[in-house]
Amino acid sequence: MYYVQEITEKIFWVGGNDRRLERFENMFPIPQGVAYNSYLIMDEKTALIDTVDAAISALYLENVTHVLDGRPLDYLIVNHMEPDHCANIEELVRRYPGVKIVGNKKTFQFIEQFYSFNCQENYHEVREGEELALGERTLQFFFAPMVHWPEVMVTYEQKEKILFSADAFGSFGAHPGTLFSDQVDFEHFYLDEARRYYTNIVGKYGLQVQAALKKLSSLDIRMICSVHGPVWRRNLSYILDKYDRWSRYEPEQRGVVLFYASMYGNTENVMNRIAGKLAEKGVRDMRMYDVSKTHASYIIADAWKYSHLVIGSPTYNMGLYFVMEALLHEMAGLNFQNRKVALVGNYTWACKSVPAMRNLVENMKKMEIIGSPFEVNSSMKAAQEPELDKLVDDIYASLLAEGYRNEAD
Ligand SMILES: Cc1cc2nc3c(=O)[nH]c(=O)nc-3n(C[C@H](O)[C@H](O)[C@H](O)COP(=O)(O)O)c2cc1C
Ligand SMILES: [Fe+2]
Ligand SMILES: [Fe+2]
């Protein structure tokens, strides 16, 4: 049976949740599921904003049919052509042959690349800033290229001042019954998943997100309707600020993320010792991860959140332990930048992990290596304690220099 929610008097959420999907993009674990949001505006003309993933098509079509209540669908706005939002275009055209598909040149190019049905006579191409009157309401389109994909645009509804933002301001996590961010404790319920979504999915395109934020700054926005996660109708500056910071690659918090690879536990031992020594100095904001255990997306999200990283890896086949190498490549691919980093290497006959990590880190922008990398020859020895203390002192000094406030002081 249909399941829809009213957003405003004549605008309905007609999307759905997927709590079964193991991995988003077949890569990112989503233990809390994901929502695919689509919105239907019931004005003199009817307009549907984006569609949903194929996994929930049956319910989705029921939702749309229910809200339309016998009326035809006049417009289908395609803000983003990624298949998690476009799986239902063909079926909608079949059911509503008069529907105008609203998009830009790239949108239509992508429709033809992904699908083989013929709907050219349904195309309604719009240009940057163009308006579309629906009756009482008017939509306006702004292009946001590479705020995930090149064809992305956002749609602004002028009467109720709603921004339909495509993937922007989205989050992993299915709706827990509630739809609006102010109906849950967002920081507790969504923030980590919103950060993991942004950093891993859109993180590479900080510059383009900044350009989009600048373009939208002149609009009076009262509500943000993304295609994933909750709808924002209160305290919009909160999520706008987060996006601004994330897309500038600025840490949200002073603190340390320690992540390591270790086979026999000796690199792990050094990482524990570093974290323990930092804790003795009063550092409280620390996270530690074994890269072989925790999915990279979680580590990347925390690396985005915190100001300092400690990275440890054994040498493996004259290079870097594969999982660590893959993680650092992934971070570089996401344009990760602007952090302070301490390095820990380990080896039994020839240490290659430190130069390999240094090379990967230094190829990222605005990265600073703290102190001297700490190298262990198979296992740490007591004689190395002063050297480790020195590195910990350097990390601590860097934290203080970056404005870390030590609660223990
Ligand atoms: C498949 C394999 C390849 C390795 N390759 C190297 C190497 O090229 N050079 C080296 O010095 N040690 C190499 N090692 C040894 C580890 O780097 C070394 O034992 C290290 O101390 C392990 O740290 P851990 O206790 O944190 O796992 C290799 C180990 C394995 C299992
Ligand atoms: Fe997308
Ligand atoms: Fe998406």
UniProtKB/TrEMBL annotation:
Record protein name field: Flavorubredoxin
Q: Give the record's family classification.
A: In the N-terminal section; belongs to the zinc metallo-hydrolase group 3 family.
UniProt cross-references to Gene3D superfamilies, sorted A to Z: 3.40.50.360, Ribonuclease Z/Hydroxyacylglutathione hydrolase-like
Offer an example of a GO molecular function term for this protein: FMN binding
Question: Taxonomically, which superkingdom?
Answer: Bacteria
Record-annotated Flavodoxin-like domain positions: 256-396
Q: Which PROSITE patterns does the annotation name? A: FLAVODOXIN_LIKE
Q: Which residues form a coiled coil?
A: none
Q: Name one Pfam family in it.
A: Flavodoxin_1
